[in-house]
């Protein structure tokens, strides 16, 4: 029987396994994960789960029965240490597992804070795994001073959760504005105001010289000479794709395990999906770190493993929850050169429309599900409104559908 081995029992790995079965594949499927928990959702780790408001059961993507019913061999607490392409087998601590096709779904890990700037201190927290959330959650106690390094989505979500727990929160962002890497200034402005209104101190263009403390973090020295006190720190300065297994066997890695539109790596019969890979998108090669991408790309790769030749055409979308604001993003704004803010009913909502010249690329919708849905449908249909139309508050984009 044909044997498909999936390394990484996360969102993308599970998506591949599920789709293989849906397509009627009746060979062997092994899903191998180094974590103890069966595949689970990560988004709640910086939201409800961090607050202790979501049970482990509800964090799981599928109940354990599912794997038995679907005949998916789930190996947990099992780390793949190496791949042998010639022998077509993977090495675990205590066994070798042969494969016909191999799927790398190893995800990403938080970019570590270097030791020379205090990365080795106690009292620092990262947020990628369930265990990380279980460690951080109990530390979020009222009155403590939390320093968050990095004003990206994870940092800002943790800031919101920590405020609701009564901590004093400072977000330190090295760039000149929060969310700089992922959003336009208008979206950054919206979230800066939102956090300020909730009492979070946001410091932008604020370079960290080093975290200070005698064993345990007690503060931070900034490059400009300012000093901040801190009882604990959360590090949210981006992630690194987990490419080591691929690199060790000479598979092409460029900002992630490089795959083609079908999800194949540079090695025959070896595929990569989710956060660990970099994929072609509109002439560029990008990483998409999101649940929808893990699911959609995973499903396509399952087709291709079974010889059904399908290109993956990403339809990116994403969300983030902060306080009572739900941000929904349709599309990908890379390459934008102008934006329009569409007025909304109140100052708790707005939408930001990104264009490259006259082509709509994406929309950030803050408490604006209608704009989000509209944008998704426009992008799906490739029915771009003109910039002037969107800039006209009287214009209703729904008329284009
Ligand atoms: P992962 O889910 O990380 O799974 C990879 C798995 O592989 C891990 O369990 C890892 O331990 C395992 N693994 C790696 N190497 C090995 C090995 N050698 N042997 C065995 N196992 C191995 N996305 C959104 O769309 N919306 C959100 O709101 C959102 N919020 C997020 C909040 C947080 C705190 C985090 C961390 C992520 C969030 N994301 C969000 C991103 C989303 O969770 C990821 O894009 C998604 O999980 C990627 O799936 P993946 O399968 O590629 O990687």
TrEMBL record:
Its cofactor is FAD. Keywords: FAD, Flavoprotein, Oxidoreductase. It holds the Pfam family Reductase_C. GO terms for cellular component: cytoplasm. One of its GO terms (molecular function) is oxidoreductase activity, acting on NAD(P)H. Residues 3-298 form the FAD/NAD(P)-binding domain. It comes from the Bacteria. InterPro entries: FAD-oxidoreductase/Apoptosis, FAD/NAD-bd_sf, FAD/NAD-binding_dom, FAD/NAD-linked_Rdtase_dimer_sf, Reductase_C. Residues 317-396 form the Reductase C-terminal domain. This is NAD(P)/FAD-dependent oxidoreductase. It comes from Mesorhizobium zhangyense.
């Amino acid at each position: 029987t044909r044997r498909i081995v999936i390394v990484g029992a996360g969102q993308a790995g599970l998506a591949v396994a599920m789709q293989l079965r849906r397509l009627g594949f009746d060979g062997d499927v092994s899903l191998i994960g180094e974590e103890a928990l069966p595949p689970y959702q990560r988004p709640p780790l910086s939201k409800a789960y961090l607050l202790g408001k979501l049970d482990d059961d509800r964090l799981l993507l599928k109940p354990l029965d599912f794997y038995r019913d679907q005949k998916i061999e789930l190996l947990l607490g099992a780390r793949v240490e190496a791949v042998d392409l010639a022998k077509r087998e993977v090495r675990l601590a205590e066994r070798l597992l042969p494969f016909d096709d191999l799927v790398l779904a190893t995800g990403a890990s938080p970019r570590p804070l270097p030791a020379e700037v205090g990365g080795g201190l106690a009292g620092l927290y990262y947020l990628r795994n369930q265990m990380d959330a279980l460690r951080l959650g109990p530390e979020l106690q009222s009155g403590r001073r939390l320093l968050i390094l990095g004003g990206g989505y994870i940092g800002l979500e943790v800031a919101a959760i920590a405020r609701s727990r009564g901590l004093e929160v400072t977000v330190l962002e090295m760039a000149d504005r929060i969310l700089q890497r992922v959003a336009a200034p208008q979206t950054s402005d919206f979230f800066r105001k939102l956090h300020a209104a909730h009492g979070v101190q946001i410091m932008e263009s604020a370079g960290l010289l080093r975290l200070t403390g005698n064993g345990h973090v007690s503060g931070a020295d900034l490059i400009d000479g300012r000093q901040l006190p801190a009882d604990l720190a959360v590090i949210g300065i981006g992630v690194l794709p987990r490419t080591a297994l691929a690199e060790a066997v000479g598979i092409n890695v460029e900002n992630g395990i490089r795959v083609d539109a079908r999800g194949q790596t540079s090695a025959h019969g070896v595929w990569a999906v989710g956060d660990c890979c970099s994929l072609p998108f509109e002439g560029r090669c990008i990483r998409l770190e999101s649940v929808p991408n893990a699911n959609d790309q995973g499903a396509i790769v399952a087709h291709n493993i079974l010889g059904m030749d399908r290109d993956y055409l990403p339809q990116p979308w994403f969300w983030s929850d902060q306080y009572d604001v739900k941000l929904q993003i349709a599309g990908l704004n890379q390459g934008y050169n102008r934006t329009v803010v569409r007025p909304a009913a109140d100052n708790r909502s707005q939408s930001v429309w990104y264009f490259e010249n006259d082509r709509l690329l994406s929309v950030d919708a803050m408490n604006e599900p209608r704009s989000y849905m509209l944008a998704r449908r426009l992008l799906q249909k490739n029915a771009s409104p003109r910039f002037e139309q969107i800039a006209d508050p009287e214009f209703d984009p729904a008329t284009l559908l």
